[in-house]
């Protein structure tokens, strides 16, 4: 059932993503994910699923169409302003296209008879969200339709909600660490979502629209938006006795909120503590900009001439480049096919290998293209592959190092050094 | 990082799905997928991805918001009628919420310089679709927001397009065969999508809204909608000399269309045959009702008292039921945990095992619940698990058979008999 993935079957190529055919803008702020990027997106989603599962969160899906009456209950139908896309159905009932789902999920949980033993409850989804931005820009960084992971948590008390909050932050830390990107966690603004505590996760990148202040001594960071006037004027961090304030540009990729009872109250979401004694549920909400993480990671890791993906979610891991058409090209082609089959038979590498079949192009040209679009590894079958014991050149394109290896050594090395998500 | 999946952490519960908490209706025709069903959905999506990959199709994602001008180009902005959900953005530009994406994808491909060597091109997505049904009903069978797989194919000639058409039909056949559901393929109506050839895939179920006529002799089936008056009146199949016409109710779960140049023409989608010689591209489109397949399969396989999923996509495969709280319950609990860990360490069974921790309930009651909500297998740790060599009762809940096995035999049997999708 498996088919050999040839280069020609992969239509592959912000500035980098657009120019290399990774995304397609159909209108201002509306982008298609092209196959190359889709693969990275699917991997990122599996990675997020793993981290959510590790904290006992359960995946579900709510509808994009959210009934107006839910949003009217919390007043956000009006307070969200013109970013909320609204439409009527054929019966003139009004809906919005969910930019976030606090109302929708709180309504769901309020329809169940909740006991103390059901808590904590952690529900999340990874779905399309909508925001009618005034000025969409920067590709996937600020688009009008985007993929978001939104987790909603339900706890019996403020203390338990804080525990849950910390466990989600830990999961976010693990996620960004596994991606191999630097991240900055700063105090954030609660904004229209509301609540009592909020943090933002940023990936540092010059394209970032947020200005962050981080104290190198106490480690506490803050978004300029929410800085005290004092701090701004004195250029001093919150702690009076320590201060080594640095600024950084960041792309916001995650946001966590302790919501308190802001949503459970209007939806009358109680749980039974003991018979006849009801308590309001304490809530939290936790977002990750999924499609935004893709582009932010690329902005963060890449150079002008080379796309660098977080290795774990690179669309493919290895590109095999056999010799150019001509003298004895059939020999390296046969070797390349053999190598492809062997690598592809290793469970965690299955589907991660591409055989570059445009052999009318020179090795150098193909290698340059593969470097540009973000392959972590290339295997070149040049003249040394024609020797009695063929040698293969393994190039680590992200670190610019290379090795000449026999086929068994090459397979061993890739098997052990590549981590994938299945 | 793995956590033990306890029953309490899995909020689990058409008639069956709603009553068992598998879906939640927030409004007429708008359903949330609850965690139980979400797991089946994610598996079904992976299965579809596998079959699409096997025919060289590439996954991508288009936006739900589709610019009106694309739909006006083909006249469908008006001809789709009131099922099309329309809305303006803040600049009064009009969009529809895509019920299907022929225009959107043809526009994309028409923006690339297409050479003959790029064909066939096969692009698909699995995304939310929208249809403002006059009378939504039957849960996921006819809802207003649903998951669909839509594949679009681009070929150089009618003959090549037919080859592609047949390869997709083969993939659909494999898909339904792997799901273990009966299916009926009949000639369908091309309707508002248009084109020259169309087939429908149905899962037979009494809840189905389509009446199908199938000739037992020639095997050709037809939807009543598109039957010749002749056939309807004479009750004869298309072939004059063979006839053994039977009728069946079916739920439409797939639809295939050979589109010809209906979309490539208005979008001026040509490819370069040789320098200076241009040809219109021949297109096909192929849908699968993803969320509908979930419910149709359940309708098809289940009884009034038991949900039966296609085994391959059952939310979990095995439920371990230790003895009720009381005499020596700690012994079977420890055994159950050991069994859980061992099964969970088998790569293809990882994440498929649930340990039923509501041990205040009797074994019988828990077993009855697990049977109802569609576990393929239950392992009961009753009195025989307390013997010197513990014996475990493996119940195959779909076939109502059971075996008493030692732990090694039990693990071996499950390892070999359960197929999962990773």
TrEMBL record, chains A, B:
It is an enzyme of class 6 (ligase). Residues 43-310 form the Aminoacyl-transfer RNA synthetases class-II family profile domain. PROSITE patterns: AA_TRNA_LIGASE_II. InterPro entries: aa-tRNA-synt_IIb, aa-tRNA-synth_II, aa-tRNA-synth_II/BPL/LPL, Anticodon-bd, Anticodon-bd_dom_sf, Pro-tRNA-ligase_IIa, Pro-tRNA_synthetase, ProRS_core_prok. It comes from the Eukaryota. Its EC number is 6.1.1.15. SUPFAM superfamilies: Class II aaRS ABD-related, Class II aaRS and biotin synthetases. GO terms for cellular component: mitochondrion. CDD domains: ProRS_core_prok (cd00779). GO terms for biological process: prolyl-tRNA aminoacylation. It catalyses: tRNA(Pro) + L-proline + ATP = L-prolyl-tRNA(Pro) + AMP + diphosphate. Signal peptide: none annotated. The chain crosses the membrane at residues 20-37. Keywords: Aminoacyl-tRNA synthetase, ATP-binding, Ligase, Membrane, Nucleotide-binding, Protein biosynthesis, Transmembrane, Transmembrane helix. The keyword Cell membrane does not apply. GO terms for molecular function: ATP binding; proline-tRNA ligase activity. This is Probable proline--tRNA ligase, mitochondrial. It comes from Lingula anatina. The gene is LOC106155297.
